[in-house]
Amino acid sequence: MALIVGGLLAVVATALHPSRETTASILQTEPRLVAAHVLFTVAYLLVLLGLPGLYGAESTRMGRLGLSGFLLAFMGTTLIAVSGDFGFIAPVLAAESSEMIDAVNRYPPVVTVNAVAFATFVVGFVIFGIAMTKTATLTRLSGILVAVGAPLQVFGFATAQVFSSALWTIAVLGSAALGGGLAWAGYRMWRQPAV
Q1: Euclidean distance between CA atoms 161 and 159, whole angstroms
Q2: Confidence of residue 106 (pLDDT cuts 50, 70, 90)
């Protein structure tokens, strides 16, 4: 159930999230930004609760590849969930000191943690999704959705921030693939527990 709800909430959070995080857009879309970050936090906490159950039920079939993907995806999701508090701080910083937002985003420890978070999130879910395709219990398509969704979500987020808010559609599609793949796997495990 945690993967079902978490996967679906992640899609809603991405669709709700403003496509850019500039000082002006943060102030203009503060309620949406904060609501999206609340949903992301809850979604990723639920995913963190569901991933061990999914891996535990399928660990024999997923093998070492699945273990590697699980550990990386778990670590990346944890780091993203923890760093999501920026969405709660950003409106205050934008209103009080807009220069501070850029300074925080350029601060080397923040850059490093974000880079590690996104890299482990993407690589972990790609590997975990591939391992999911090798199980008999889960559908091959749910694994493909997970493996393709994570990189699309992060790529869409990054390109929308740097180039054009129109590219946010890629983030939404990636989130829909990742969230849908996790929700589908969660549903399969709920309806047909592994033996």
Answers
A1: 5
A2: confident
Beta strands, E only, the chain: none
DSSP 136: S
From residue 54, give the alpha-carbon distance in Å to each of 107, 158, 182.
36, 29, 9
Assign 25 to helix, strand or coil: helix
Which positions ≥6 away from 8 have C-beta within 8 Å? 179, 183
Q: Return d(Cα 170, Cα 159) in angstroms, integer.
A: 9
pTM over 0.85: yes
**Residue found under tokens 């969230």:** 179
What are the tens digits of pLDDT across the range 137-176? 888 999 999 999 999 999 999 999 889 989 999 999 999 9
Q: Where are the domains of the chain?
A: 2-191
Mean of the per-residue pLDDT values of the chain = 91
Question: What percentage of the chain's residues is helix, strand, coil (to nearest 5)?
Answer: 85, 0, 15
4: CB partners within 8 A, 6+ apart: 50, 183, 186, 187, 190
Instruction: Answer yes or no: are the C-beta atoms of 174 and 146 closer than 8 Å.
Output: no
Between 183 and 97, name the one with better pLDDT: 183
